[in-house]
Amino acid sequence: MLVIGGSASTKLGKKVSNELDCEFASVEKKTFPDGEIYVRISEKVEGEKALVVQSTCYPPNKNYMELFLLLDALNDLNAEKISAFIPYFGYARQDKRFEPGEAVSFKTVAKLIESAGADEIYVMDIHGEKIESGPKVFQIPAFNLTAAPILSKYVAKNYSLEKPVVLAPDEGAKEWARKAGKSIEADWDFMVKKRHGAKKVEITPRELDVKNRDVIILDDIISTGGTMTEAIKILKENGAKTVFACCTHPVLSDNALEKIKNAGAREVIGTDTIPSEVSKVSVAPVIAESYRQ
Amino acid sequence: MLVIGGSASTKLGKKVSNELDCEFASVEKKTFPDGEIYVRISEKVEGEKALVVQSTCYPPNKNYMELFLLLDALNDLNAEKISAFIPYFGYARQDKRFEPGEAVSFKTVAKLIESAGADEIYVMDIHGEKIESGPKVFQIPAFNLTAAPILSKYVAKNYSLEKPVVLAPDEGAKEWARKAGKSIEADWDFMVKKRHGAKKVEITPRELDVKNRDVIILDDIISTGGTMTEAIKILKENGAKTVFACCTHPVLSDNALEKIKNAGAREVIGTDTIPSEVSKVSVAPVIAESYRQ
């Protein structure tokens, strides 16, 4: 068994190989002046189980091409089984045709990953329905892992929380809040939009009162930080004591981090699916546990 | 029938649709701040024959991803037949495993193009043996077209040539010189390395004397311009009157153009497989003629 780390996930790949107590294959990588990339796997892979770790975060097209080249090379080199772990899965946003004639890029890249040579695929915190329901996107076995419990555990371990509550910023993320809440034996809830009359819309926790409580907001992704900033402000207005802003994928475009801190977050915490300055929690144990089974 | 032009080949795509006297589909294209791209084909494609024109020159990974998205979208939208015309084919360089463990990127991208949804593929002046010999790279019908005749015809039309000769700078390109020479009823030859004793290597035309003749040098690609510059110098030393530097794919990295002009080329001529300042010859009639058949 060996782990192969792509350019976007070299550090994480090493951590995964440590967790699995197996070899971390060194990969020679080059980019030519014309933008073409080159990869070479130095280790013997014939007859081995290989786990490729590669996020397809920015720059997504280069990172996808590198992933395709690694998978196809492993295939050619007769690896016994090829697993792709794509911690951040680029192009997941366009998962259906919103307007006639659109390319459904999520489906396209899924197809390309399979045809490049993956036998199974692991992803982190993609909205569940994208993987599981409707016409199946993946023909090969696909596992959607979650970082929710390790994020809430990180907060619980590093702070003495008072009557903690885990909150999803919208209903779409409620399953993650539930899992994260359960894992630290805390209450959980999600935010809802309540209409007052024709125009006024109020966003609040669905049921729970957050007054004088420590709140962990949990989302799959922080991009521009708009959703997170708004949620923090509302919770502060509702009397929350301390607010922790947690996410699996810290995309953090523009000045997202500054905005969230200014809104009053005690700490912003992400995982290493995307390397960033808030990547304080590693998903290595999560993939290792799932892969071992 | 309709032609779809990718970002790298919009102008050429339009020319191809003119040649074929068919509709040029407008494609909405966007790049998001995270580097992900979006394409949408506005025209009705159901039941239509679609020809996608997209070079995979710089930036190759983005251009390939756009090609994959277009092909998959056409597939989804039930186009009757999907043809991919890839005038410049990125990743053609790595067509075999030179060192153990290398990804054979030419094979990988060929596989991805097919699985994205192409029913047939057209390329320009890829070294013939890559397409035709050995274990087949493409499972779908693949056509390797040549711009050699239109390049030599361009020179013959614009200059009154004296005892013209078409020369390939090495044996690998001799077929193109032969075709280009025949098309303007000129002599043709290729350059060879002749060894004099242990160390001295002389590069000359294999047979023909170029003294006082107009020479068209013809190569598939000009990258750094090293091969072309050397050939021009030698031909000038051998008394050639005028030298024209022609290629199908004007990659022209670094200061290639300046170097070639300084070496004494009368004109540098490329095609529009890669848009450039020397793209004076369009390959549109070549693909149109082949596609019609």
Describe the protein in words.
Chains A, B: Its cofactor is Mg(2+). The structure is a homodimer. Chain A has helices at about 10-20, 60-75, 105-115, 130, 150-160, 175-185, 225-235, 255-265, 285-290; strands at about 1-5, 25, 25-30, 35-40, 50-55, 80-85, 120-125, 140-145, 165-170, 185-195, 200-205, 215-220, 240-250, 265-270, 280. By secondary structure, chain A is of the alpha/beta class. Chain A has 2 domains: about 1-145 and about 285-290, Rossmann fold, CATH 3.40.50.2020; about 150-270, Rossmann fold. In chain A, the strands form 3 sheets. In chain A, strands 11-10-9-12-13-14-15 form a 7-stranded mixed sheet. In chain A, strand 13, helix 8 and strand 14 form a beta-alpha-beta unit. Chain A is globular and about 60 Å long. The model of chain A has no long low-confidence stretch (mean pLDDT about 95). The interface between A and B is large, with 49 and 49 residues.
Can you count the beta strands of chain A?
15
> Termini separation of chain A (Å)?
14 Å
Would you give the CATH topology of the largest domain in chain A?
Answer: Rossmann fold
Structural class of chain A: alpha/beta
- Tell me the domain tally of chain A: 2
Biggest chain pair interface: A-B, 49 and 49 residues
CATH class call of the largest domain in chain A: Alpha Beta
- What's the gyration radius of chain A in Å? 20 Å
- Secondary structure tally, helices of chain A: 9
Strand order of the largest sheet of chain A: 11-10-9-12-13-14-15
H and E order of chain A: EHEEEEHEHEHEHEHEEEHEHEEH
| Oligomer classification | homodimer
Largest sheet of chain A: 7 strands, mixed
CATH-defined architecture of the largest domain in chain A: 3-Layer(aba) Sandwich
Please report which band the strand proportion of chain A falls in: under 5%, 5-15%, 15-25%, 25-35%, 35-45% or over 45%. 25-35%
Which bin fits the share of residues in helices of chain A?
Answer: 25-40%
- Basic shape of chain A: globular
Domain Phosphoribosyltransferase (chains A, B): 138-268
Organism (chains A, B): candidate division MSBL1 archaeon SCGC-AAA382A03
Binding site for ATP (chains A, B): 34-36, 93-94
Pfam families (chains A, B): Pribosyltran, Pribosyltran_N
